[in-house]
Amino acid sequence: MRPAPGAEATCIAARALGLEADAFPLFAVHPLRWEAPARAEVDALLLGSANALRHGGADLAHYRGLPAYAVGETTAAAARAAGLDVVRTGTGGLQGLLGHIDPAHRRLLRLAGRERISLEIPAHVTVLTREVYASQALPLPGALAARLRTPCLVLLHSAEAARHFARLCDSAGIVRSQIHVTALGPRIAAAAGTGWAGIAAAPTATDAALLALAKELCQGFTPGS
């Protein structure tokens, strides 16, 4: 359900595990115009999505060589490709990363999406946020609607996607009780709501953990369960 190119990357990894998987992105990501702070005002970057690097535009070059804190491996790889020095990669969200900020990095620039989670900022840190991309919710594709009317398992990578997916199912009259949901974390699972055939959260916020959980659930699945 995640936007491209992440959706197809997840499917490729799922197929490598022997799963039958297809991508149905429910969001399209587009860049936003933003004002880049002067490099001298920034000690390090805080990155919660690879989309910030994909859609940040030419102004990202101002920060080449600066330290960066990345929410996960995919974001870290995009940051390195943009010339940033990734000093720490998280596994459980941006809030956890804020507990490991180098004392020398007091002024963080957060490149984020229009929709984002709120953070509790440590007293010794200031965070300047710039919205550099936005996600546009898409309608339910007909092919996906047909799939959802038979027993299946759905992967959800964000709370926004979980809420949107639940609304689409309800609007289309799709019965939740035959859809198994796996989420990238507990917060995302909670956002999906209730009534599903089953709902589970990956133990860590990585695609590898999510797909391992999906494989385990698929192996234990029997029609009608």
Whole-number count of domains: 2
Which strand order spans the largest sheet, edge to edge or round the barrel? 1-6-5-2-3-4
Distinct helical segment count: 8
Helical percentage: 25-40%
Regarding CATH, which class of the largest domain? Alpha Beta
Question: What's the multimeric state?
Answer: single chain
What would you report as the Rg, rounded to the nearest angstrom?
A: 19 Å
The CATH architecture term of the largest domain is 3-Layer(aba) Sandwich
Fill in the CATH topology of the largest domain: Rossmann fold
Q: How many β-strand runs?
A: 9
Q: What is the SS-derived class? A: alpha/beta
> Could you list the spans in which at least 5 consecutive residues all have pLDDT below 50?
none
Largest sheet data: 6 strands, mixed
Strand residue content: 15-25%
Distance between the termini: 23 Å
Quick one: overall form?
elongated
Return the average pLDDT rounded to an integer.
93
Task: Write up what this structure looks like.
By secondary structure, the chain is of the alpha/beta class. The chain folds into two domains: 6-26 and 138-219, 3-Layer(aba) Sandwich (Rossmann fold), CATH 3.40.50.10090; 29-136, 3-Layer(aba) Sandwich (Rossmann fold). It has helices at residues 6-16, 51-55, 73-81, 94-97, 142-148, 159-171, 186-191, 207-219, and strands at residues 27-31, 44-47, 67-70, 85-89, 107-113, 126-137, 152-156, 179-183, 198-201. A six-stranded mixed beta sheet has the order 1-6-5-2-3-4. The longest helix is centred in the C-terminal third of the chain and has 13 residues, at 159-171. The chain starts with 5 loop residues before the first helix and ends in a 6-residue tail after the last helix.
